[in-house]
Amino acid sequence: LKAMKTSAKAMQNTVKESDLDKADEVMEDINEQMDTINEMNNLMSEPLGQMMDDDELEAELAELEELEADELLNDGLPEVAMNKGNANLDALGNLEDAPTKLPQKKQQEDDELAELEAMMNWLNWK
Question: What is the pTM of this model?
Fold first, then answer.
């Protein structure tokens, strides 16, 4: 019983030291802060930027892949000059005539080959 009296007195002292208005203010502050946090969470959970549907994303991806493929195909290829008219044909007119004879070394090789074939034919005939 003594312990109960001591507890009751401790509770009375605590209530005397506490002000119900202060407790109510603290609870209001806590509730306001919780509302602010909930608002922030809701705002942050919304998606960023404009939402695109899957078809639009697929089309954009296909376009980017096509551009990349074109770049890969064109890498290393020489630039082709456009709108030059007949400039290249004019340059051909300044070329020397194409040779009509085989170079001398090639001609010698062909002559030696023909001579060897003739010898082989003669040996096979005998």
Answer: 0.30
